[in-house]
Amino acid sequence: MAEEQRDLISDRGSGVVNVRDARRSTLGRKAAFSTLSILVALLIAGQAVTIYFVYQQSGQISKLTKTSQTLQLEALQRKLPASAKPVNKMKMAMVNTPLAMRVLPLAPSVGDVDKAPASNKTEDQVKHILLQTDPRKMFPELKDNLMDNLKRLKSTMTDADWKSFESWMHKWLLFEMAKNPKAEERKAIPAEKG
Predict the structure, then answer these.
(1) How far apart are CA 96 and CA 138, in angstroms?
(2) More confident residue, 82 or 147
(3) Nearest to 164 by CA among 172, 143, 89
(4) CA 51, CA 159: separation in Å to the nearest integer?
(5) CB atoms < 10 A from the CB of 142, how many?
(6) Which has the closest alpha carbon to 113: 123, 99, 102, 127?
(7) Alpha-carbon torsion, ordered 167, 169, 175, 179, to 10 deg
(8) pLDDT score at 121
(9) Per-residue model confidence as pLDDT tens digits over 4-41
(10) Residue from 70, 74, 94 nearest 83 by CA
(11) CB-count burial class (<10 Å; 0-12, 13-18, 19+) for 76
């Protein structure tokens, strides 16, 4: 009988222990789930706060970027030589006022371009070809001697166009010299100072 009581006590004890263990494991799972839910919610809230602050700061970031680019551009402009200043900072005195105020003739109409050149001269043939590619092209009237005409051209051209023209003249001169080689020694022609 003593043994039966012990078995009953141990059965009751084990039954109580089993119920307690089941309750503890259920409570543990609920606590773990709650903790995990809280952590996920905090992570999402943290991401939302971060996005809010980044969005709020994007205006200031773009202002800083523009300021940085402006400062870099100013630093590059300071490094440029004085002759390469931007066009907007050039003085008005550099413009040839009489030439700028002169009324230019109208460009030939499209119908005039299709016509044959005025003569068989090389100048007329080249003008005809150039006007076919761009009917708005203008050609200045050059009626003086060669040196005066070149000076006038230089004053009406941009620096880049003049450099390109000088390069072409150099190549043309080399071509002419190669075309007509002379047996006698050539004399050096000094450049005229302007």
Answers:
(1) 18
(2) 147
(3) 172
(4) 53
(5) 12
(6) 127
(7) -170
(8) 81
(9) 766 666 655 554 446 567 777 888 888 889 999 999 99
(10) 94
(11) exposed
- In 10 A of CB 131, how many CB atoms? 20
Q: Which helix H or strand E contains 36, and what residues bound it? A: helix 2-79
**pTM given for the model:** 0.32
4 to 8, 16, 18, 135, 179: CA distances (angstroms): 6, 18, 20, 123, 135
Q: Looking at this protein, which amino acid is placed at residue 25?
A: S
- Does the pLDDT of residue 181 top 90, yes or no? no
Residue with tokens 């809010």: 52
Q: Hunting for tokens 């709650």 — which residue is that?
A: 34
Rounded Cα distance, 170 and 190, in Å: 15
8 A C-beta contact, residue 112 and residue 140:
no
Residue 46's pLDDT is what? 94
Q: Are 106 and 117 in contact (CB under 8 A)?
A: no
* CA–CA separation, 28 and 22 (whole Å): 10
| pLDDT value, residue 82 | 60
First and final C-alpha spacing in the chain: 137
> What number of other Cβ atoms are within 10 A of residue 128's Cβ?
17
- Is the distance from CB of 194 to CB of 151 less than 8 angstroms? yes
Phi, psi values for residue 154, rounded to 5°:
-60, -35
